[in-house]
What we know:
Structural class: alpha+beta
Number of helices: 3
Radius of gyration: 14 Å
Distance between the termini: 39 Å
Low-confidence stretches: none
Mean pLDDT: 92
Number of domains: 1
Amino acid sequence: MELNKTEEMAMKIIRELRGHMKNKIGSSEINNVVDDNNHRAFSINFQAYNYFCILLNYDRGRIGCSIQYGEKSFIGLENSQKWYEQADFDIFCKELQEQLELRIPDKFLEANGWK
């Protein structure tokens, strides 16, 4: 199967997340791909810390993550890296981890060797 440029971007982001967060990232899925010269967009759903379902959105260069709870309910996660072309994925992943770990009980993180 040949991937278009937008799907390749999504796969690159998944590799970056897995490279930085290792076993803290579970299954992932790419959705809602728009591959047009004037508009590129996609979503990546993935499991983080075996605790949260995360939605990462890319739309015309802007990136961001949310915790998904319920079918259409989301909690936005702050991150200083808002633009894909300028993003430092070391910082993006570090800030994502910090935001997630603030919301997970320390006992759970310790029991899984993440703290």
